[in-house]
Hints:
Layout: E1 9-14, E2 17-22, H1 29-38, H2 42-48
Antiparallel strand pairs: 1-2
Amino acid sequence: MQISDDSDETVILVGDGEIAWPKGCLLPRPMGVRVLLEAEDREAVWARYTWVEQ
């Protein structure tokens, strides 16, 4: 999911390791919770948000 065009990377913790991830693909917590709550309607989520290939 992409929320901005910011391609600068930041380091995030995934599992027990760190990876570099584009800042434009990090969601603010309230938005992340909203997307998770909407996930039951997958087609609407795919249509409502911008997605990029990783």
